[in-house]
Design goal:
Layout lengths: L3 H18 L3 H18 L4 H24 L5 H25 L16 H7 L3 H13 L2 H11 L5 H13 L4 H35 L5 H17 L6 H8 L3 H17 L1 H6 L1 H4 L1
Length: 278
């Protein structure tokens, strides 16, 4: 078993490399394993919560390193342990708020598109079923699982983070830049859907005020808004995923449908009820 002192040494070395070369590559390689193991091993967070912590770390890596230097700390492992604990407690508070508000969630709640065929057929499930689905995905070809998760913005496992990192590196792209752009795309999609839903709500109100006058006109307007809303999706396109992974759109599409079909045909899923998970 590896000694903690050796892990400390590698982490410190990765920090020194960043301040010498200005590259977070070595730091992230050490830091995300450290943070994942700490969150899952000591605090027993589930995989999705661990993924949220790693994502936060990826986005804020340079800020964390500069904070350590600016405040004059001398022991980076101790500093990073405190930082990771803070991420863990924030994640626990978030999970607690979701449970307190009685939001039915499998950990993917902020990535749901209720009109998505995938959502209707695969992700409409209990937490128990969700765990089963994640286990099935973990047994698949890593690329197929990664494609499916990127498509629907499902939190990645540590192995998938590392695989995606290696693919982006070949295109000289950073994980931080990808996820920052992805979150902005998601935010714009959410705002557009919100705008359309408010427009539809105003349409209902006008209909009630005018006592069903011009009903046909109202139906046409309603249909147009619903059609536009349906076209606004939070899903990543196969073409974009293919570009990031260095694969053809056809290959990405093929791997995606393979992953979905694997979920549907699993006996464990069928026992729970096809309507719930597949």
């Amino acid at each position: 078993m590896e000694k903690n002192s050796e892990k400390d040494r590698r982490l410190i070395s990765s920090v020194d490399f960043y301040f010498r070369e200005g590259n977070t590559e070595n730091f992230l390689k050490e830091a995300w394993i450290w943070a994942w193991t700490f969150a899952k091993g000591r605090y027993h967070l589930d995989e999705d919560s661990c993924s949220e912590i790693i994502l936060k770390l990826v986005l804020d890596a340079e800020e964390v390193l500069h904070l350590f230097k600016e405040r004059g700390y001398s022991n980076f492992p101790a500093f990073f342990t405190a930082y990771t604990k803070n991420l863990i407690w924030n994640q626990r508070r978030k999970d607690f708020r979701l449970k307190k508000n009685e939001i039915l969630s499998d950990g993917f709640e902020r990535f749901y598109d209720p009109r998505s065929e995938f959502t209707k057929e695969i992700l409409n499930q209990t937490r128990e079923t969700s765990l089963l689905v994640r286990n099935i995905l973990s047994e698949m070809d890593p690329i197929s699982s990664l494609i499916l998760k990127l498509k629907h913005r499902i939190p990645l496992s540590l192995k998938e983070f590392r695989l995606f990192y290696s693919k982006l590196k070949k295109k000289k792209l950073k994980l931080k830049d990808y996820f920052a752009k992805d979150m902005e795309e998601e935010r714009r999609s959410w705002l557009r859907k919100k705008e359309l839903n408010e427009k539809l709500s105003r349409l209902y109100q006008n209909m009630q005020i005018h006592h069903f006058e011009n009903l046909e006109r109202w139906k046409i307007s309603r249909r147009q808004i619903v059609e536009v809303c349906s076209a606004v999706t939070g899903e990543k396109s196969f073409k974009k995923i293919g570009w990031y992974l260095g694969l053809s759109e056809h290959s990405v599409r093929k791997s995606y449908y393979f992953a979905v079909s694997e979920l549907k045909r699993k006996e464990e899923i069928k026992k729970i009820r096809f309507a719930e998970a597949a």
